[in-house]
Every structure is written in C-alpha cells, then in structure tokens.
C-alpha cells in the first residue's frame, strides 16, 4: 500500500504551474536566456500547433557545450529531447512517481487536451512526501497522546521510542526524561522487559505501581518482515473502575444486609409490645437516651427482647445509618477482627480478592448492636475499647485509618460486674459501654402484657402462613397466664406458633398445649390455692392483692392504694401488720 494515503492524491493537486514554453524555431541562445531569467532548470518546446514536441534542461545544455556542438543561433528544436513523456491530470501521484522512476526522468509534464497545464518534478514529490510524513507524524503523536491508555514503544534494545502523555501522567516520568533511554533503567520489572526477553505476548496482567493505583498491562512483540524490532505496551489505569467496583461491592453488602433484615423483621415484631409499669419505665429511659450518643447496655434474661429494644432506640435516635446487629457468641474467635473491622485484598489466605468492609464501616452513621457482649474474647475487648476511644478503625491487612461515627448499644444476659471481678471482662470497657443501663424485666414480672403478646403473635404468624385466626379456650388462656415463661418472650412466641400449627378447626384447646407448660402451671396453681381456714385465706388474699398492686405500680404506694380501693393509711397499716 502506498505510504501516507498518497495513492488517492491526483497530479493536478500537486503539479506546479510555474513552467516555460518556447517555440521550436526560437534560437537555443534565447531559450537559455529565458531559462536563466526565470531561474528554471527546464523548458518545454512546442510546434506550430501548440503541441509539446520536446524538452530541454540545463543539464542538456551543459552536455551540448561539452561536446562542442553548441551554436547559439541554431533553433532549439535542433538540441531538444524529442522523447517527451507526459501524464494526465487525473493520474494519481503514485502513478506519476512510477512513470518517472521507470523512465529515469526528473520532470513530468501534465497534458490535457494536447496542452501542457502543469509540471510534476521529482523535487515536488519529495517535498510532498516530506510534508506528508511530518503531517502524519504530528497526527500520529496527537492520536497516541489522545489514547486513554498509557502507551510505550521500545526498539529491540529496549530504547524508548514512544512515550505518550498518559504514560507521563500514570508513571510520573516526563517524556524528555525517558525518550531515547532504556526502559529497564526506569522500570526493571516492567512487563515490557519480559517481552523483550522471551518475545511472548502478555495480556491483561494486573499491576499496582503505587498505593491506591491499579493497572492492567498488555505487551506485544513487534515484527517487520519476520524480524523482531521492538515491543509495544498499553497500560490501562483501572483505579476508578476498582474504586467503583468497591463502592458497588459495599452497596451490594448493604443491600444484601437490608434484604435479610426486611425478611427477618417483617411485620410488627420490631415494635415493643406491652404497657406494664415496669416495661413503660424502661421505655421512658430508652426514649430519653436515644437522642444522645451515650453507650447503652441492655441487660436481662434471654428472650426478654433486648434486640427489639435496641432497634427501637436506633429508630428513635433518627440516625441516618444502618442498625447492624452482631451476635458476639456466634462469631469464631479468630474471625472477630475481620468481621468487625473488615479486611483489605489479600489480607490472609482465603480472603475475598476485593476485600470486604466490616461491621463498623457498614454501620457508619448508624448503630451497632453488640448482642451477648460477655462472649467477646479478651483480645477483641482491647481492640473494641481502642475504637471507642479513637473513633477510627483499620482494616485487617490495611494501612489506612477510617473514621467511624457509630453508636454502640450492647446487651448481655450475663452478670458483667461479676465477670469484671473474676477478670473475665475488661473493667475499662465495661464502664465505657455501661454509660446507661436498661435492665429489661422478665415476662413473669409483666403478666399483664402476656395476652397482648399472644394476640400479636397470633396475628403475625397466621398472616405469614395464610391461616385463619383461631379461637383460644379460656382454660388455655388461664394456663398461659400462670406459666412462668423462663424463656420469656421468645418461648412465648414459639409456644404460640406450636399451638397454631397443631390446632384443628381453628380452635386451640388443652389437648395441644405442651405437657411441660401444663405441669408447670398446675404446680403454680396448687401453690396459689387458699386454705380452708377463712382467717388464713383472707390474710393470704390481702397479701397477694397488696403484692400485685405494688408490682403493677412499681412500688408506688399511693397508686397501689388507689388500685386496692383503700385509703393510703390502711395500706401502710396492713403492710406493717403483714411485715411487707
């Protein structure tokens, strides 16, 4: 293929119109004078009809004089070269060049309708090609500099021939510093050096020349006529793509977490249910502290609703971030740090190659609920304390410190004070977490809420399973109210689900109540039976009534007296008599 696209350039586009034509009968002397006056190296000769019949050049004149044949008055037709080769204006420059090479001529007249209209000289062709080469070189440089990838071309000895602007930007090496020098003096381990050595292609090789910069490299050997002449490498900066990928991965993690949470907490289970005085007192405390950033620890027996309480605190706090629950007893000791703080790519064997954000990053701007905090290993207690103090974390295998703004709500059914005394829990962490303590009452101390919870679970489970709401017989209700519920709300929900699954004809009767509940409630009923002695029975009745009234009013004697419908002085008197 003709170089630089000149095969499509027509001769009329580059021909010169600066030429001399003389009549064939004019003297050779006049011909030479006109050539000298015009500073032209050639002159064309025409006949009476205006047709070009010859050409004379200064070289021809010189040869004539050397041979002693020169007579200045002789007509020019005597000396002219009668073999005139011409070309058409529509011929391409490539065709003109080939004609001149084949005939060993340096001047080619362009003739149209038997009349000369221009001249193509060898100098014109050279100038045109030099111009086109320079123009193409500039275009090629602009194209290479405009390419998004960093481009480097070296010769067979590794000398840099091309180093575009994106290569300067990516590797911080100016073109004037590296051009004409060996690439391996700057990048000893570069992929381009490997290709120079083994002549094998490299495709999409990952490389990180500096922190937070990610490159994908391809390098190929260059062959001309079967001879190895160099290597070209293209380096793509995929840092933005990697960062976007990480953001998408984080968003995916959050989305996955939210989906799980929606599935887990669909319905109204997330609300606190009940209106007993003891529960209302805890709700009031929680409402007051929720707007602050104070650390809260929720204590109470298993199944009392500590997570539901923590979630309610988060929702009332109006924090924009997520509520992220963590069961400390369910995380293997060796995975605690990576789960809480996350890890960078390649932090350990088996790690996700993209890295992973931890729970603290996930909950940034929100609330972390550390359930069963008493099961956290001692080494992690120290790390957690440091995070709470410095408000920043560092991923496993990472070097970058990440600022964290997350509220900590923890919970336990264990006696942390006793654990501190026994050296099983850090005292400094205990006081850091225990700014406000909310001790949730067991279900047996809020019996007035049992029927509300039963109704709630009935609606929730039946709606989920697509079943009709069953009726509950009175003796079953009485049994549920008298049972101790050592597993608290969790045990109550499981029992309700058991009754719904086993009931037939939408009726719950004693036949499907678990045996252990019947036995436990029966024993309690026997204990609560009154003796036949009326005086003793009355005393027991009054004691129980006073006790229940005080429990319902959280020890407020004025309110208890109102419930008992007796004067407050009478209540004080009876409490003194019964040594209550």
From TrEMBL:
Gene3D superfamilies: 1.10.8.60, CBS-domain, Homeodomain-like, P-loop containing nucleotide triphosphate hydrolases, PAS domain. Transmembrane segments: none annotated. It comes from the Bacteria. Residues 272-501 form the Sigma-54 factor interaction domain. Residues 241-268 form a coiled coil. Keywords: ATP-binding, CBS domain, Coiled coil, Nucleotide-binding, Transcription, Transcription regulation. Residues 15-73, 80-135 form the CBS domain. Residues 136-187 form the PAS domain. GO terms for biological process: regulation of DNA-templated transcription. InterPro entries: AAA+_ATPase, AAA_lid_NorR, CBS_dom, CBS_dom_sf, Homeodomain-like_sf, HTH_Fis, P-loop_NTPase, PAS. Signal peptide: none annotated. GO terms for molecular function: ATP binding; sequence-specific DNA binding. This is Sigma 54 transcriptional activator. It comes from Peptoclostridium litorale DSM 5388. The lineage of its organism: Bacteria, Bacillati, Bacillota, Clostridia, Peptostreptococcales.
């Amino acid at each position: 293929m003709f170089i630089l696209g000149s095969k499509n350039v027509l001769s009329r586009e580059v021909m010169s119109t600066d030429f001399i034509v003389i009549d064939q009968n004019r003297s050779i002397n006049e011909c030479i004078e006109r050539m000298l006056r015009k500073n032209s190296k050639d002159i064309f000769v025409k006949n009476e009809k205006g047709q070009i019949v010859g050409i004379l050049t200064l070289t021809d004149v010189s040869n004539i004089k050397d041979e002693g044949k020169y007579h200045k008055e002789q007509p020019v037709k005597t000396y002219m070269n009668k073999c005139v080769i011409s070309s058409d204006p529509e011929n391409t420059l490539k065709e003109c060049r080939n004609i001149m090479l084949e005939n060993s001529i340096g001047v080619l007249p362009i003739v149209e309708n038997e009349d000369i209209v221009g001249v193509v000289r060898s100098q014109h062709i050279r100038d045109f090609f030099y111009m086109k080469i320079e123009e193409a070189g500039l275009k090629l440089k602009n194209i290479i500099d405009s390419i998004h990838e960093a481009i480097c071309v070296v010769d067979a000895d590794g000398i840099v021939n091309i180093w575009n602007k994106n290569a300067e930007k990516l590797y911080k090496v100016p073109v004037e510093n590296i051009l004409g020098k060996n690439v391996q003096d700057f990048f000893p381990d570069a992929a381009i050096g490997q290709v120079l050595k083994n002549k094998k292609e490299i495709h999409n090789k990952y490389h990180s020349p500096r922190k937070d910069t990610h490159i994908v490299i391809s390098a190929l050997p260059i062959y001309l006529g079967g001879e190895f002449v160099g290597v070209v490498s293209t380096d793509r900066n995929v840092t933005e793509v990697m960062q976007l990928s990480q953001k998408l991965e984080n968003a995916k993690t959050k989305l996955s977490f939210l989906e799980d949470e929606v599935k887990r907490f669909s319905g109204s289970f997330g609300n606190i249910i009940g209106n007993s005085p003891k529960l209302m007192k805890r709700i009031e405390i929680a409402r007051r502290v929720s707007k602050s950033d104070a650390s809260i620890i929720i204590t109470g027996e298993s199944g009392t609703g500590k997570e539901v309480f923590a979630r309610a605190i988060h929702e009332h706090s109006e924090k924009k971030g997520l509520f992220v629950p963590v069961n400390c007893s369910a995380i293997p000791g060796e995975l605690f740090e990576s789960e809480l703080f996350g890890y960078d790519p390649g932090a350990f064997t088996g790690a996700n190659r993209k890295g992973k954000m931890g729970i603290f990053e996930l909950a940034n701007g929100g609330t972390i609920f550390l359930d069963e905090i008493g099961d956290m290993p001692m080494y992690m207690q120290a790390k957690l304390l440091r995070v709470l103090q410095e408000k920043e974390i560092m991923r496993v295998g990472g070097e970058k410190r990440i600022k964290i703004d997350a509220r900590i709500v923890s919970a336990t059914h264990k006696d942390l004070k006793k654990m501190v005394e026994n050296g099983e829990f850090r005292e400094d962490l205990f006081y850091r977490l225990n700014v406000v303590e909310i001790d949730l009452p067991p279900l047996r101390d809020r019996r007035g809420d049992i029927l509300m919870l039963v109704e709630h679970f009935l609606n929730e489970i039946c709606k989920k399973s697509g079943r009709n709401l069953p009726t509950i017989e009175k003796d079953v209700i009485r049994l549920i109210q008298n049972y101790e519920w050592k597993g608290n709300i969790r045990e109550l929900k499981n029992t309700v689900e058991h009754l719904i699954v086993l009931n037939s004809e939408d009726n719950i009767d004693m036949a499907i109540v678990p045996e252990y509940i019947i036995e436990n409630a029966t024993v309690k009923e026997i204990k609560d039976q009154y003796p036949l002695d009326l005086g003793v029975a009355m005393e027991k009745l009054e004691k129980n009534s006073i006790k229940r009234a005080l429990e319902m009013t959280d020890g407020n004697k004025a309110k208890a007296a109102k419930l008992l419908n007796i004067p407050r002085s009478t209540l004080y008197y009876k409490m003194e008599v019964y040594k209550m």
